C-alpha cells in the first residue's frame, strides 16, 4: 500500500458530489427560542415533510443529545456552552455527509449561537421561534415552568435566567400569532430555497 | 399548539422508514488497528464504492473528529476514552439518521471498543485491520513511528503503548498479506450483507 494509493483514496468524496447525488445541498438550521415555543414540534414536522420529498434531514434536540453525546454535561453556563459547541461540531459533520440538520435548542445566549455560526460557517441559518413567555408558560408542555416559578428548578430560561433573542435571524416565526401549519410551511419554504442545487 | 399535536409530530420518522427510503439499513463499522495499518485508506475506498452504489456512508477518522468535536481532548488515557465515547455517540446519531458509519480509529484498548459496542448496540461491527508493527513502521506514512522510536512522541501505540487486538472481530483484514483491493472488497462484501433490508 503506497502513499500514492492512500492519497488517491483520501477525501475523494466532496460535499458537492454528495449534494448532486442527494439532489439537494446540506445546511444547518438552528431553531432557537424559549421552552414551549414550538421548536421541536416545528423541526419534526419539517423533517417529515423533507423526508416525504426524498430529502435527507435529521432533528437534533435535547432528547437525542443530552442522553448521549452530552450526557456528561450539567446545565451550568460552562457546560451549556460546551453542549452547544459539541452539537455544532456534530452538525458540521452531518452537513458534510449531506444531511440537512434541524436543530431545536433553547440556546439562550447570543454568544453561544455565534459560536455555532463560527463553527458551521456559511451553512448556518438562525431561525428564531418567537413566543411570549406567558404563552409558553400557559402551554407548559413539560411542567417545568410551574416548577421554575415554585423555585424547584433554578436558572430556568425566561423565568429566572435570560433569553437573548436574535436581533437579525434568517427567519423569525411567531408561534403565538400564527398557526403551527403556517410556521412549518414558512420554515420549509425557507429551507428549500437554501438547499436548492446551484446548477441543474 | 396543543400537546396532542406535539406528540403527533415527535419521533414520527423511524429508522425502518429511513432504511426503506434509502434502500439499505444503517450500521457502524469500526475499523481498529495500528497507525499505518490501512484503516483510513480502506474506509475511504469503501465509502466511495458505497457512494457509487447510491448508498449513504460517511468516514470518521482523526482528521474530522480531532480538530472539531474532540478538539478539547488530549491524548491522555482518560481523554482517549472520552474521544472514543463521543465518536460512538455521534455515530449512533448518524446510524439513526440512516447513514452507514465507517470509523477508522486506532482505538487500542479493548475496553474502549466494548464501550462503543455498548453505546451503539447491535449495529456495531468490529473490523480488525491487522498488520505487523514492523510493516506499519516501514510504511510510516505520517513519520510518527520514527519520532516515537526517537522518543520524541510518547505513548505511541505499538512502540511505547499497548495495542489490544480484538479476539473475535466480525471481520479481520491482513493488510500485509493481502492487496489493498482485496481488503476493500472483503470489507464491502461484509458491509453489504449487514445493511441489506430484511424484506424487499
**Biggest sheet architecture of chain A:** 5 strands, parallel
- Hey, roughly how much beta strand do the residues of chain A contain? 5-15%
**Level of helix content of chain A?**
40-55%
Oligomer: homodimer
Structural class of chain A: alpha/beta
H-E order of chain A: HHEHEHHEHEHHEH
Low-confidence stretches of chain A: 1-9
Mean of all residue-level pLDDT scores of chain A: 91
CATH architecture of chain A: 3-Layer(aba) Sandwich
Radius of gyration of chain A: 18 Å
CATH class of chain A: Alpha Beta
Q: Tally of extended strands of chain A?
A: 5
How many domains would you count in the coordinates of chain A? 1
Summarize the structure.
The structure is a homodimer of 200-residue chains. With 200 residues, chain A is α/β, with parallel strands linked by helices. Chain A has 9 helices and 5 strands, in the order ααβαβααβαβααβα.
